[in-house]
Amino acid sequence: MRKQIVAGNWKMNNTFQEADDLINELVEFINSNDIGDIGVIICPPAPYLELTSDSASESDLFVGAQNVNDHESGAYTGEISAAMLESMNIDYCIIGHSERRKYYHESNEMLSEKVNRAIESSIQPIFCCGELLPEREAGEYFDVVKAQLEESLFHLKEEDFEDVVIAYEPVWAIGTGVTATSDQAQEMHAFIRSLIKEKYNENIAENTTILYGGSCNPKNARELFANKDVDGGLIGGASLKADDFAKIIQSF
Ligand code: 13P
Q1: Phi, psi for residue 142 in degrees, rounded to 5
Q2: Is 28 noted as a catalytic residue in this protein?
Q3: Which pTM was predicted?
Q4: Is 120 known to be catalytic?
Q5: Rounded average pLDDT over 160-177
């Protein structure tokens, strides 16, 4: 059985105090509710990783970084290495978010190196893929996502690919309030799973967690998560409010 996951990507939000309050509310929610085997991951801004990790150790929460550098170490001012994350017991790292592709010009090639650094340090990549609106409208969305996976992920050996979580985030749905329909999400998730089967095998395809991201909220999460190939969500805006995030976790 593949793992169901709800991950919160806080992006560049919250002061230290706000982060502390939010994480404490989430720990309280997790500790006082039976969430079964659902994996809950918090991806705070880097300066709050230690705080989040300390608080998460009091519950079943996992912690993820939002980014990692593609080099091992050295003169890269302002950057964070996979080895640093590993030394802080960070479990996951978002790699290839569309905001980083757009604003920081991260190419598929660079992202394949980031994936390598994460795997070498036993950090599980949450690898983001997804098409832009013009690519959807031109009917190119399958080709775009296929290239993203082939160029950044499919070089991995079977045993390393097993540690990867994929997040399908159509860029036109991120922060816009426009969610992919349940059918659009299922169609793409099934396609991604078929690519994994083709590249690796059926067992790996069936065991890979594929999350949906893009304006997922307490109102639409249940319908999205009900799809056969949608194994949870990568949540932006709605992860900043403990109540909303808790409702999403309870949407399976
Ligand atoms: P929103 O949920 O705010 O649309 O963001 C999704 C996202 O980008 C998660 O990584």
Answers
A1: -65, -40
A2: no
A3: 0.98
A4: no
A5: 96
Ligand 1 centroid vs 75 CA: distance in angstroms? 31
Asked if 251 and 34 count as a contact pair (C-beta separation under 8 A), the reply is no
In this predicted model, what pLDDT tens digit does every residue of 117-147 receive, in sequence order? 999 999 999 999 999 999 999 999 999 999 9
Domain ranges of the chain: 5-249
Nearest residue by C-alpha to atom 7 in ligand 1: 236
Question: Which residue in this structure is represented by tokens 């949540």?
Answer: 235
Q: What is the DSSP letter of 2?
A: P
With bands split at pLDDT 50, 70 and 90, how would you rate the model's confidence at 116?
Answer: very high
Per residue in 47-99, pLDDT (tens digit) is 999 999 999 988 889 999 999 999 999 999 999 999 999 999 999 999 999 99
Q: Any idea how long the chain is?
A: 252
**Residue 183 backbone phi and psi in degrees, to 5:** -65, -40
The position carrying tokens 């720990």 is 27
CATH number 3.40.630.30 given to 5-249: no
Angle (CA) 232-120-236 rounded to 5° is 30
> Which residue's CA is minimally distant from atom 5 of ligand 1?
236
CA distance linking residue 94 with residue 104, whole number of Å: 15
Q: Residue 95: beta bridge partners?
A: 127
Q: Nearest-CA neighbor of 195 among 204, 182, 186?
A: 204
